[in-house]
Amino acid sequence: MVDCADAYGLAQFRSTVTGCPVHPGDPEVPLPLPEGPALVFIQVPEPKTVKNRLHPCLRPSASREEEVERLVASLVADRREPDSGWAVLSDLNASNYRF
After folding, report:
1. Fewest CB atoms less than 10 Å from the CB: which of 3, 11, 15, 37?
2. Contact 9/92 with Cβ under 8 angstroms?
3. Cα–Cα distances in Å, from 49 out to 3, 4, 96, 99?
4. What does the alpha-carbon distance between residue 7 and residue 26 come to, in Å, rounded to a whole number?
5. pTM
């Protein structure tokens, strides 16, 4: 489970990343993944007080560069090298995603 201020907004971004659909209307938004457990985003009233600890590392079927171009919300850090490294993206909630 992921506590957040905007459960549906965060689930929507992850839905874009994973290609798995989410359904609106609940402060608890599950994102079922094709393999493994579902991610569940839960809306909480208190503000974030510490650094996020959830950083999913994904391996897209397209090239890393194509996936970053598809998903760019804002590029926080570019650590890509010719055959290694990653890009750190930030959604509207300032959660980071590494590819």
Report:
1. 37
2. yes
3. 12, 11, 16, 25
4. 8
5. 0.54
Burial of 11 from C-beta contacts in 10 A (0-12 / 13-18 / 19+): buried
Of the chain, the end-to-end C-alpha distance in Å amounts to 21
| Both tokens assigned to 43 | 């809306």
Alpha-carbon distances of 77 from 49, 90, 92, 98, rounded to whole Å: 22, 9, 16, 9
Token readout for 85 is 């490294």
CA atoms of 67 and 53, how far apart (whole Å): 22
For 3-54, what is each residue's pLDDT tens digit?
888 888 888 888 888 888 887 767 788 888 777 777 888 888 887 777 666 6
